[in-house]
Amino acid sequence: MPTAPPSRPSSLTERRKAATELEIARTAAALFAERGAAVTAEDIARAAGVAPRTFYRYFRTKEDAVAPLLTGGVRDWAEGLADLAAREPELPLGEVLERAAREALTPADARAEEALEWTRGLLHAMQDNPALRAVWHRAHHESELALIDVLARTTTAGPLEVRLTAAAADGALRAAVEVWAAGETDEAPAELAVRGIRLVAAGLPWLTERRG
Amino acid sequence: MPTAPPSRPSSLTERRKAATELEIARTAAALFAERGAAVTAEDIARAAGVAPRTFYRYFRTKEDAVAPLLTGGVRDWAEGLADLAAREPELPLGEVLERAAREALTPADARAEEALEWTRGLLHAMQDNPALRAVWHRAHHESELALIDVLARTTTAGPLEVRLTAAAADGALRAAVEVWAAGETDEAPAELAVRGIRLVAAGLPWLTERRG
DNA sequence: GCCTCAATGGCACACTGTGCCACCTTTGCA
DNA sequence: TGCAAAGGTGGCACAGTGTGCCATTGAGGC
User: pLDDT digit string (tens) for B40-71?
Assistant: First the structure.
């Protein structure tokens, strides 16, 4: 999960802003994981050492505060695949999706590793916090839009096919992270995602097999 | 979209409650479609002829007010397929999904027809109203949970496969309704959904084909 | 060292959603 | 028919959310 392009050596002000944003995000994630939905924006602001008014300058809602830790992987994937699809016009789309997924879900540094660990706790906290889950869903919605855009430009598939493929591919990424976060497997998120994307491309045989 | 089991001949009080709920839902849908997100709970309440306090007895948030018109189809689908899977243990799961989808998305009466029409307007209003879109996504999240439950009980597929199938199948239903609502096709929602489910089961060839 | 500008925080405000209570209609029963 | 229990409704107060506006302060360019 690269999440940030090598982090250009920025000015003091910019570095402080980035540090504050990350501090708020960590604080919010910890509080949501610890106390569930019974956390106020003021709680987060105070614990992060900023004024409530400042908190809302960084994030539009209190749930949004966890986005930097929660949705980085999805964002990276959506951006990465658009780039890759343009850069390698020969590559089948399935492979574009796989490579971008592997890159986005393989932690590249300590920062990305930490975000992935927070993701685990946040996905758990979502179980009984709809507003928090909405952040997750919104990120995936945006990734779907990006996918629809790429598919519409690079295939001749019809509207249903395009939207369906976007939903299924994004669903594969989402399922991979959710299965990993639930502790239902030993595989790494990146491996799960690649496997999921291949399944989607090849078909789901247990839907056509006779049950019994 | 049956949405309501034949509507048992209820008491006066119950019929009034149902009428009030529907009136609020219609009012909310009309206001959201007309004015976007710039609608207050008080606006909806006043236009529907109830007190704000009463409004919040019917719905937890102002966006939830549109749920009876927006999410009926998805709910019917999720419930229908659980029933059907149990009732016809021989039927391949793909066919269970298809039949339930056809039933849930084929308007059964004027009430269902109306709801489907509102759905169109609401899906459009969602474009610039994240809170409204969250209602849509939450309904699909619940449908996914129902699907995961059915799949876990009736197949031997692993955790990734189960979650992935749930995401893809629900995604097919969602894509079908969204494509229809966007006016990108002449097909009916039910036909689109069935076609989508079959695609998911059989695989998506344009992901493996070489581009050009 | 000064000047500009952006980040911060305080304040007021509209709006959201809920607990509590008082009222009144419906409903069940004598 | 009369009456009491039950439940729907609405008013009120209140904690919390999110934003516009303005003063203060510290960083970065000259």
Answer: 999 999 999 999 999 999 999 999 999 999 99
Instruction: Tell me which H or E stretch contains B91.
Output: none
More confident residue, A211 or B102: B102
Instruction: Report the 10 Å Cβ neighbour count for A106.
Output: 17
Contact state of A160 with B168 under an 8 Å Cβ cutoff: no
Q: Do B204 and A209 touch (CB under 8 A)?
A: no
Chain-centroid distance of CA A89 in Å reads: 25
Which is nearest to B185 in space by CA: A160, A147, A152? A160
**For residue A12, what pLDDT band results from cuts at 50, 70 and 90?**
confident
Q: How far is the CA of A148 from the C1' of C8 (A)?
A: 40
A195 has a chain B CB within 8 A of its CB: yes
Asked if strand C comes closer than 7 Å to A37 Cβ, the answer is no
Kindly list the residues from chain A whose CB atom is less than 8 angstroms away from the CB atom of residue B196: 160, 164
Instruction: Confirm whether any atom of chain C, the nucleic acid strand, is less than 7 Å from CB of A17.
Output: yes
User: Could you tell me which chain A residue has the CA closest to the CA of B96?
Assistant: A207
Residues 32-91 in A contacting B (C-alpha not used; CB under 8 Å): 89-91
Q: Per-residue pLDDT tens for A85-113?
A: 999 999 999 999 999 999 999 999 999 99
> How far is residue A209's CA from residue B114's CA, in Å, rounded to a whole number?
37
State the average pLDDT over residues A187-194: 98
Gap from B53 CA to C17 C1', Å: 9
Is residue B68 packed enough to be buried (19+ CB in 10 Å), middle (13-18) or exposed (0-12)? buried
**Half-sphere exposure (Cβ direction) of A30: Cα atoms closer than 13 Å:** 12
Spatial distance between the Cα atoms of A172 and B100, rounded to a whole number of angstroms:
23
Greatest pairwise CA separation for chain A in angstroms: 65
pLDDT, mean over chain A:
94
- Cα separation, A151 vs A162, whole angstroms: 6
Average pLDDT over residues A22-41: 97
Establish if A161 touches chain B: CB-CB under 8 angstroms: yes
